[in-house]
């Protein structure tokens, strides 16, 4: 890694870590929590949708699996004395969902491009239907309750903020490592021409399954943090929401698919803009129109995504 890249990454992490200590209002910190959440989700999706070129629309299913796994671990507990302790389950949830994603990837990745997208979005509706109908396990439409995190009201958002920041850094480190390793080279070859990649000896099936499993494992951990942040109750329509995946895909394409910082930039612009406009305009729904206009204007001006388009123009100059 170049020294400039290390400095930029370090400054980003330090600035992000110091931001909550400046005492921003609760609504601002809540907005930043969701920006970090979608930045981590977008960076995780980028591993399979950007580096491998497989546009998965089913990540909301794994987000929901992580959320329900976390909620079920807390469901039968009467209360919590240590709010940080449940975060220790995140690695186990991530590994468990990643292992679950291996057979899913082995089957779904027999297809390509548009068919793969259809197969994966079908998985979202299957998981959502199960969440609605398995009343004894998920609580169905009535929701699944669990103890509220016992953090101080004045700083309630901070623990979730820092855990999501750690997950974002992890996702970005994995992306960076993949881009500069044989795995990343294999994924780039698959994205370019999968048949030729197989012909020159690239272990196509293995790298695709690996990218998918790591991606959904990270997604499940973010889903678990989201569930914990929901103040003691989650519902199927929010835990397994197809719009979550759509938002993540849009953010990744906006910032630049297959890049390190593109998903983060897309999340800052779109999720930050959505949260701010929703706060300013309230329930009038006008913020949705403004949100759509911002996205369309950027995509018309920078069709390949912000970072790739700017890099291309700089190279041409």
The percent range for helix content is over 70%
Using the alpha-carbon principal axes, give the shape.
globular
Q: How would you state the average pLDDT, rounded?
A: 89
Radius of gyration: 19 Å
Uncertain runs with pLDDT below 50, 5 residues or more? Answer: none
Largest sheet: 2 strands, antiparallel
The quaternary state of the protein chains shown equals: single chain
Order of helices and strands: HHHHHHEHHHHEHHHHH
N-C termini distance: 25 Å
Give, in spatial order, the strands making up the sheet with the most strands: 1-2
Q: What percent strand?
A: under 5%
Count every helix, treating DSSP H or I runs of 4 or more residues as helices: 15
Which SSEs are present, and which pair or pack?
Layout: H1 3-18, H2 26-49, H3 59-75, H4 90-108, H5 113-133, H6 135-138, E1 144-145, H7 157-179, H8 182-192, H9 194-199, H10 204-229, E2 233-234, H11 236-239, H12 242-255, H13 262-281, H14 286-301, H15 306-316
Antiparallel strand pairs: 1-2
């Amino acid at each position: 890694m170049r020294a400039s890249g290390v400095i930029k990454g370090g400054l980003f992490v330090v600035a992000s870590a110091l931001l909550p200590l400046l005492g921003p209002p609760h609504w601002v910190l809540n907005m930043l929590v969701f920006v970090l959440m979608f930045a981590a989700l977008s960076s995780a999706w980028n591993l399979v949708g950007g580096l491998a070129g497989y546009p998965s629309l089913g990540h909301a299913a794994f987000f929901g699996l992580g959320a329900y796994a976390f909620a079920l671990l807390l469901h039968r507990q009467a209360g919590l004395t240590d709010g940080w302790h449940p975060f220790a389950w995140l690695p186990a949830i991530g590994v468990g969902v990643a292992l679950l994603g291996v057979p899913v990837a082995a089957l779904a990745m027999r297809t390509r491009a548009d068919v793969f997208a259809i197969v994966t979005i079908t998985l979202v509706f299957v998981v959502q239907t199960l969440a609605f109908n398995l009343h004894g396990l998920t609580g169905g439409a009535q929701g699944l309750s669990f103890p509220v995190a016992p953090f101080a009201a004045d700083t309630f958002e901070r623990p979730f903020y820092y855990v999501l920041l750690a997950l974002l850094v992890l996702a970005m480190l994995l992306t960076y490592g993949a881009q500069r390793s044989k795995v990343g080279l294999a994924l780039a070859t698959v994205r370019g021409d999968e048949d030729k990649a197989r012909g020159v000896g690239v272990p196509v099936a293995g790298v695709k399954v690996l990218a998918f499993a790591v991606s959904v494992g990270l997604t499940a951990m973010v889903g678990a943090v989201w569930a914990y942040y929901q103040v003691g109750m989650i519902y199927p329509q929010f835990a397994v929401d197809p719009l979550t995946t759509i938002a993540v895909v849009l953010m990744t394409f906006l910032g630049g698919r297959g890049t390190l910082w593109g998903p983060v930039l897309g999340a800052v612009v779109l999720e930050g803009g959505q949260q701010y406009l929703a706060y300013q305009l309230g329930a009038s729904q006008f913020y949705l129109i403004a949100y759509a206009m911002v996205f369309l204007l950027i995509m018309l001006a920078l069709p390949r995504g912000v970072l790739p388009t700017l890099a291309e123009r700089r190279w041409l100059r």
